[in-house]
Amino acid sequence: MNLAQATVLLWVLGSLQAFEIVEKENIFQRTPCPAFLMFDNAAYLADMSFELPCHCKPEEVSAVVWYYQKHLGSGHTKVLTDFDGRVLTEAAQVRVGSDLLVRFSIHMFSLLVFRAQPEDSGLYFCGTRKGDYFYAYDVDIQSSERMVATFEDQGQEPFADEHHGSLRVFTTFWEWTPCDRCGVRGEQWRIGLCYLQSPDLSPRYRKTLPDVVSCGSRAVPRQLRAKARDHVPELLLRSCLVPCEKKKKIQEGVMALFSYVAKVGSRPWLPPVPIQFHQQRLGHGLIISCPGARPEHAVAWDKDHQYLYRTQYLKGVNGSMRVFIDHGNHLHIRFTQLEDRGIYYCWRQGVRIAGLRLGVTSRGRYPVSFSNPEIRAALVLTLIGYLLITAVFITIHLCRCCCYSFRCYPNFSP
């Protein structure tokens, strides 16, 4: 590519980007900001990533700042901004448990929050540096710790609606996911979040349906929220079977190269998906994640030729499970054993995309790290035991000193 072609290509890309910005500004011109600030209700499951668009702003505002409050009118407000050289956050770099200030990005006036936690529930405002608000959201992040799984193939049914006078508590289900496997029997599921309907909701919060908001919304009075506390999110599962899409045939030239490199009469083994090797110490825990997968995706796990169905391996099905799949689509192996060796394949949205060859060893020296939860637990138990022994020792000597001081120390002399 010569200099002239490169210049034309850059001009075309710049024109397309400018067209995108102009289109975005035209949307703001057609959408006037409300005279009275309202809150749009939105509910998500923990560990999900979500986007909050700033649907309106004045034409003279070229950049927005997002604000977060736990409760309306609270004194503590977090300022979420990408100004002053802040690098945009990527979902792959976010760790569980990180503060909200390191788990967000702003792109084209929209706020992106990665791996949201129940502590992130609250009010989000789109505004300027001066504190002028244009648009606001009421976000409810519901925990998956007590999520209940319902297996449709076993005849189980979701929770029935709860009625407390004029209050109705129910589950709103999302759409079914695609089948998590192809060519063999797979599973699909839908996430259900807690919602309620009541005429006693705050009128300042905008509802999709009349008098209906999520159970953790700020529009719900405290006494009503307490009645809906026992209605937990649900996961509805069922079996499915879909054919696989035809894969493109490998070019003849590539096959000829493989045949040339391989030994006579044999061909090299080609893995169906990229495979990574991992060595794990015997007796230690391991958590495996599927690349690029999110909690709302259809994710499946296989060990070699064994299918790990959620009917048997979902977290909570059996309290004593050593190998299980959590609600965030992660595969957990507790107290790794020699029988866990093998290749673990990961399916995402019905396509097998990656594999992990797991090796288990009982030899070798591993560096001590305080980030290891097992090491931290051992140190805490050792410290507690030492403190208890010290407390008993000091108590005994204090009692002896007190008895000696009051002349009640026993005399064993004849």
Automatic annotation (TrEMBL):
The keyword Signal applies. Its main location: membrane. It is found in: Membrane. PROSITE patterns: IG_LIKE. Residues 1-18 form the signal peptide. Keywords: Glycoprotein, Membrane, Signal, Transmembrane, Transmembrane helix. One of its GO terms (cellular component) is membrane. Pfam families: V-set (PF07686). The keyword Membrane applies. Residues 268-346 form the Ig-like domain. Belongs to the FAM187 family. This is Ig-like V-type domain-containing protein FAM187A. It comes from Delphinapterus leucas.
